[in-house]
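Q: Can I see a sequence and its folded structure?
A: Here is a first one.
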Amino acid sequence: MGKTKERKRIYIIGAGIAGTNIAREIMSKPVLGEVVAFLDDDPAKIGTKVLGVPVLGPLARVIDFYKQIPADEAIIAIPSATGEQLTKIYNDIAKAPFFNIKILPQLSQILDNSGHFIQTRTLNPEDLLGRTPVKVSLKKSLAYLRGKRVLITGAGGSIGSELARQLLSGGAARLYLLGHGENSLYDIDRELRLLQQGGVGEQATIIPVLGELQDRDFIFYILNRLNADVIFHAAAHKHVPMLEENPVEAIKNNVFGTKNLVDAASTYNTGRFLFISTDKAVEPASVYGASKLLAEEIVLTADRGRHDFLVVRFGN
């Protein structure tokens, strides 16, 4: 018999309403993990329990608490925190060796029920800059996906898998997950199905597709078969130093692979094609950046006279 995989252990930073709500949701869906502690700076809360879970504090003592109650992940559950406050919180909890530090959606997304608490995201530098956030309704942003057949390439990768989690709430009829890594594709497929079983997202039909972008015949075959309405193209080799040593593979995958996908999407009249590029494509100083810039040109060339081939640059 195989060994049962241990549940992810989670600290929730903030024992207020938001923290309590996310803890309750995690507890109702054990597949999401186990809340082992709250951390808070409020003296009135320290030493109490929320939903049976101890509230520890102050945050500055996180190392002491971590030694007693180790965990895999910390979720900052203070959606109203300013950039300055988040910086202090992050500097405190980053002292402990959490594998990941995440943050809840913005306050506006929680209040209008347009995002799931469980669909947290990794903390990024912009969260710490103190800028006024642009309020975007996730539900409205994804409304155009309702009833559509959506294909995500690179679905097992860091960007593709996060897209898949978010798009689970978009109301798509079918969610196709294309990737060449068997293990990573299996993991995201299983995760999305478990999230659905736990009541997260909507009941799209999830279909994993194992294959290579570099295989032009396969890409034409699969796009003809799937008849996707929308494609999110996130697949790419992106390890900068490795691609410097392997430039041919970078071009074959990132450039020719994109060309195959764009040609097939054009042939089979895909309604919308969104290419996930990188800020390293701006005056590229690496093989990776150059390969993504070339791929952008392929996508934008396909867009001439049309409005459904788009490029967005991520800071990766």
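Q: Show me another, different protein.
A: A second, unrelated one:
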Amino acid sequence: MSARKTATAGPAVARKQETHLGLVRRARRMNRTLKVAFPHVYCELDFTDPLELSVATILSAQCTDVRVNLTTPALFARYRTAADYAGADRTELEEMIRPTGFYRNKANSIIGLGQALVERFDGEVPNNLKDLVSLPGFGRKTANVVLGNAFGVPGITVDTHFGRLVRRWQWTEETDPVKVEHAIGELIERREWTDLSHRVIFHGRRVCHARKPACGVCVLAKDCPSVGTGPMDKAEAAALVKGPETEHLLALAGVVAP
């Protein structure tokens, strides 16, 4: 295994010391390539308004979007307003969100969110970062998800996939999510922030897996300093690609989907 990685990682080893301007150009080039790979990106949590997205994002902590989306239809039918959440029966709410895990803490956050919205914002989710991060259950990640997807305000969402990929691409060495957010914000145009977040997360879920990325069919291979971390054989790499965009992604790599 180690011999194969050494043999295929040549481009990464040979890469010269990169200037900041060179990094900016490479990062923006990679973003343009991702735009071709994922022309239609979106929040994978189901919602119809800012409150629903806020609750869904709180539930998504340590839980898959798929599981959250299975849980929220009944939840959103039962609780339609911030006042509904503020006055929720804790036992009932906990039981409804139990499948998402950590349901007691999440129930605390959701009830607290409803109360804060009623008491401070007339029951409406605010549309600015300062107010959002003051709400129960909200950190910068949740706030940026809501800003970008419910209000159209550009924001960078640093989840596990995003942080892992931008470090793998050597866009930053930071591990603190806030520092990662600021570092990437200096590389990529503000208008691109929300869609960049989706593209990177999509790529992390579909192609650039943590343990075994599909390097051999990755559209970013030419610009990735970590190319060769995963298999370079196209057939082997193609088998690793996941998601509804698989056929399109493999076509870009010159591979016919099985």
